[in-house]
Design goal:
2 domains; DNA polymerase, domain 1; 8 strands; Rossmann fold; single chain; 11 helices; alpha/beta
């Protein structure tokens, strides 16, 4: 059968109207709503006591020590991941602390070193966390961690903070022997939650994590508790707020 141009246009128009009216297409549209939130660790846990401890122990050099330590902590993670010489978050953090003390000529005892490192196992949630997680949970939003921290660090802090019943999955990038912002790290959220990336909002603490999540394709909310400057990386968060109540508003606007 030969179909002329006018007949073909009618057929295509009819097919399109049927597609848009079909339950399958409506379901696919609905599927683009946010169904889960994957959190970095620090929108949930307050890291400030770690660095206050350092400043208390070393009043004259504490601030500088913290600065060198934090810089090397992430540099070591990324350098090792890129070089295929992976060590986990705990080891990279430990190595960075040892480097910082040597650079600043600080005589840190093994006991002092252990005290500082173990503060990473005694993190407490920010004041708004529990009520916000309850609100998200009551709205049938699935909750997960997607963090560079080791599984032990995450599970210990979750248990000590009484957050065991909130998180469906605790995802450490250690599973893939890499770190965010590797795309393999963000893919863990999709693979674990069994959702499309567009259905998972990522809650970041740092600007570089915002960029990594956006490059991957997550709807991204920057929980900018520390008031960091925006990074010049060519992308920006879908929304920025300084607490999790603003995250709730973001989710509601995306799920009318």
């Amino acid at each position: 059968m030969i179909v002329n141009r006018r007949q073909m246009l009618k057929i295509l128009a009819g097919s399109a109207s049927g597609l848009f009216a079909s339950p399958t297409f409506a379901k696919e549209l609905h599927a683009q709503k946010i169904k889960a939130v994957a959190f970095d660790a620090f929108p949930i846990f307050d890291p400030r006591p770690i660095f206050k401890l350092v400043e208390t122990m070393y009043p004259k050099k504490g601030k500088t020590l913290n600065s060198v330590w934090k810089t090397r902590q992430f540099e070591y993670q990324w350098l090792r991941a890129l070089s295929g010489k992976y060590v986990d978050f705990w080891q990279a953090t430990d190595d960075a602390l040892r480097f910082a003390t040597k650079q600043l000529k600080i005589n840190m005892s093994d006991e002092q070193h252990a005290t500082i490192m173990n503060s990473y196992l005694n993190l407490k949630p920010w004041p708004d966390v529990i009520s916000a997680l309850k609100s998200l949970q009551d709205s049938n939003i699935r909750l997960a961690f997607l963090s560079n921290m080791t599984p032990k660090m995450l599970t210990t802090n979750i248990h000590n903070s009484g957050l065991d019943n909130f998180f469906e999955h605790i995802i450490s990038t250690d599973i893939k022997k890499t770190y965010k912002p590797s795309q393999k790290a963000y893919q863990l959220g999709v693979d674990t939650l069994k959702l499309q990336r567009e259905e998972i909002a990522f809650a970041a603490f740092a600007g570089w994590d915002v960029a990594g999540a956006k490059w991957f394709g997550y709807p991204t909310f920057w929980v900018n508790r520390a008031g960091f400057m925006k990074e010049e990386l060519g992308v920006k968060a879908d929304k920025i707020g300084n607490n999790l109540n603003h995250l709730i508003d973001f989710i509601k606007k995306n799920n009318p």
